[in-house]
Structures are given as C-alpha cells and as structure tokens.
Amino acid sequence: MQFNAWAWNDEILTTHPELLTGLFGDGIIVMPAIYPSVATIFDNSILDPARAGVSNFGSQADLTNNLIWCAGFDLNGEHLVPGELGPLKPLDPLSYSFNDGGGNLCGCEGVQTEGCVAQSSALAPPSEEVAP
User: Which superkingdom heads the taxonomic lineage of this protein's source (predicted)?
Assistant: First the structure.
C-alpha cells in the first residue's frame, strides 16, 4: 500500500521558517504517514524557499518541468527509520528517491542549471503536530 499525491501548476513564493524555531521553510515536503508516499510534482514554480525547494523524507518524488529558484538547496532527501515520525510512523525503514522526468531548472542570481541537485543534509522531518 502507498499514498499518492500530486502538485502541478502551482506557484510557491518565499516560504519562511517557523518563527520560534527557525526550522523548515521548504517549498514542498513529501513524507509518509504509515505507508510510503509517492508525489508527482510537475509544472511548478518554487521561488525563494528558505530551506529546500523540495524535501523528501522516506518517499518517492517524481519531478518534471519544475523551476526551483534561489532555494537554500534544490532537493533534500532523508531516509526514515521506524517510529521516527511517531508511533508506527513509518512501520518499516523507508528510503527516499528522486526521479527526474526532465525539464527541471534550478538556480539563483542569474545562474541556471538544467536538472537539480539532490543532497542529504540531515534535516529533521516536521513533527506530527505540523504534518497532515
């Protein structure tokens, strides 16, 4: 079993971290509940997010024709261990994956690159209180 989500033709502008903690500020966050999640992310503009353009916690993110501009970093991926998101969330260890469907552009300050760089920055996922 898995959960599926889609984000398309959205404009996400200037996300900010939480005021008290300074955490988060991602353009889009992909994460599981109990079962793995698959997000199809296409034709979006993610402009000036405070942290990552897309953060992926133990899920699959399929990206096509997105613009991620002036992000702290383009893509962030983190593996999850059982219980990391709360009791039984997730049930099993989950790895993240990014699939590049092409047409993704990342950059800032006039420097644009075809494709976006995924990295693992040891970011913490949102807590149960923040996550849907």
Answer: Bacteria
C-beta separation of 32 from 90 below 8 A: yes
Residue 73, amino acid: F
| Spatial contact of 76 and 55, defined as CB atoms under 8 Å apart | yes
Strand spans (E) along 14-124: 28-30, 37-42, 45-47, 52-57, 60-64, 67-69, 73-78, 97-100, 105-108, 111-114, 118-119
pLDDT by residue (tens digit) across 58-101?
A: 999 999 999 999 999 999 999 998 888 877 788 889 999 999 99
Contact 71, 53 (CB under 8 A): yes
- The whole-model pTM stands at 0.89
* Contact (CB, 8 A) for 75 and 117: yes
Going from the C-alpha of 21 to that of each of 7, 17, 106, 125, the distances in angstroms are 27, 8, 27, 13
How far apart CA 124 and CA 40 sit, in angstroms, is 22
Amino acid making up residue 55: S
Task: State the virtual CA torsion across 87, 27, 2, 121 in degrees, nearest 10.
Answer: -60
